[in-house]
Amino acid sequence: MRIALVPTMGALHAGHMSLIAAARRRADKVVVSIFVNPTQFGPAEDFAQYPRPFAADCRACATAGVDLIFAPQANQMYPPNFSTWVEETALAQHLCGPRRPGHFRGVCTVVLKLFNIIQPHLAFFGQKDAQQALIIRRMVRDLNVPIKIIVCPIVRERDGLAMSSRNAYLSAEQRAVAPRIYAALQRVKAWHAAGWDCLRIRRALEHELASLPGARLDYAALVDEQTLEDVTQPHRGQHILVAVAVFIGTTRLIDNLRLRW
Ligand code: AMP
Predict the structure, then answer these.
(1) Is the pTM above the cut of 0.90?
(2) CA of 129 to the centre of ligand 1 (A)
C-alpha cells in the first residue's frame, strides 16, 4: 500500500487541492498535514495572524477523498528542550533564504519530522515554493530519506495571481494590483525572445514590480534552476528560474516562472 503525504499549513485552496488530487492518482492512501509551523516564521512575520480555518479545511479534505488529516499542536511537534535542527546550507543561501533567516531550517526540520511520523512513500510539494521544493529534494537526497518527492505546477487564479493562503490578507485594491506580478513575469518571455540579456531583464522586472501601486520589491532574480545561483550569461538551453518576492502593503507574495534560455 502506497502512502502519500501532502504537507500544508492549512487555509486550503485550489493549489493545495491539486497536490491532493495528484497524490490520490499516485497513492492508495493520502495523508494531509495541517500545521502552521512556528519555527519557519521570523519574529516580525505573520505567524499569529496566519489564517486557520480548520473546520473548512477538514470539509475540503473530506470532499477531496483525503484518508487522514494530521494536525498536531505546536507543543507536540516541539516539546520542551527541543534542540535538533535540519539545515540545508547551499540552496538556502539564495532568494528567500537571506531575507527570511531561519525559514528553511524551520521548513526542513518540520518536513523531516512529518516524514518520520507519517512515513509516506511519496510526498507532494508545489512549484509555487520552488526554492522550498528544491531544498526538500536536496535534504532527502543528502540524508537518504526513502521518500519520493513530487513537485506539482503552480495553480493560479483566473487573472494569473498564484494561489496562496496569504492572498486573503489583501484588500480589494491590493488584490487588483497583485495579478500584475504574474503579468510582469510573463513579460520576461517576450524580453528573452527579443534577445535581452539577463541583467537587462532583471532590471526591467525590478522596475515593473517596484512601480506597482502600494508595492515594495523584495527581490527579482534570474537563477539557475538547480543551483539557484545568479546567472549572468546563461548557455543556450540552460534552465532558468525567474523568481520574485514582492510586498503588497505588508503582505509578502512570491511567484516564479521557468524559462529555457
Ligand atoms: P502552504 O500551505 O502554503 O505551506 O503550502 C503547502 C504546499 O502547497 C506547498 O508544497 C506549496 O508549494 C503548495 N502550494 C501552495 N500554493 C500553491 C499553488 N498556488 N499551486 C501549487 N501548489 C501550491
Answers:
(1) yes
(2) 7
